[in-house]
Amino acid sequence: MKKIQVSPSILSADFSKLGDDIKRLEENGADMIHVDVMDGHFVPNLTIGPPVIKSLRKYTKLPFDVHLMIDPVHKYIKDYSDAGADIITFHPEATENITKTIDLIKSLNKKVGISLNPDTKIAAAKDHLDKIDLILIMSVYPGFGGQKFISDVVKKIRDLDQIRKERKLNFKIEIDGGINFETSKIAVEAGVDILVSGTTVFKENNGDLKKNIKTLKQI
Ligand code: DX5
Ligand code: ZN
Question: Which of 12, 29, 124, 171 is the most buried (most CB within 10 A)?
Answer without folding.
Answer: 171
